[in-house]
Amino acid sequence: MVQASSKRDAVFPPGRQALYDQHRYSAAIRSGDLLFVSGQVGSREDGSPEPDFETQVTQAFARLSAVLAAAGCTFDDVVDVTTFHTDPPAQFDTVMRVRDRVIGEAPYPNWTAVGVTWLAGFDFEIKVIARIPDRA
Prior knowledge:
The protein is α+β, with helices and mostly antiparallel strands. It has one domain: CATH 3.30.1330.40. Helix content is 30%, strand content 27%. The chain is built from three helices and six strands, in the order βαββαβαββ. It has helices at 17-23, 53-70, 88-103, and strands at 9-11, 28-31, 34-41, 78-85, 110-115, 124-131. It has a six-stranded mixed beta sheet with strand order 1-2-3-6-4-5, covered by helices on one side. Helix 2 (53-70) packs across helix 3 (88-103). The protein is globular, with a radius of gyration of 15 Å. The relative contact order is 0.23. InterPro entries: RutC-like_sf, YjgF/YER057c/UK114, YjgH-like. GO terms for molecular function: deaminase activity. This is Endoribonuclease L-PSP.
């Protein structure tokens, strides 16, 4: 069983903490047996947006996977997904194609998709809540 703490327990994937430090947020916060993952985008190594949309979505899922792994989780542990889209009707098929490769079979996590007008130069962002598996 995971002990509750009054301090935030930050989780960072390898090699990306400087980017999070620069923007002053944590990749994820572990709270009890839950992991709250910040929005992940399809960025290049320097943090700039990947211009190809399908590659951007694929990279966002890869960044998310790295954060999950840093906390001992996988996509099987994800219970809640929120995605942000700058042009949902034009992007939906591509997002679903990438999602199907990554998320896998039912039962699926719940999912909320939100259309937005601004994502700091990105066209897609994904954030999740995962249950941290008990490895004991």
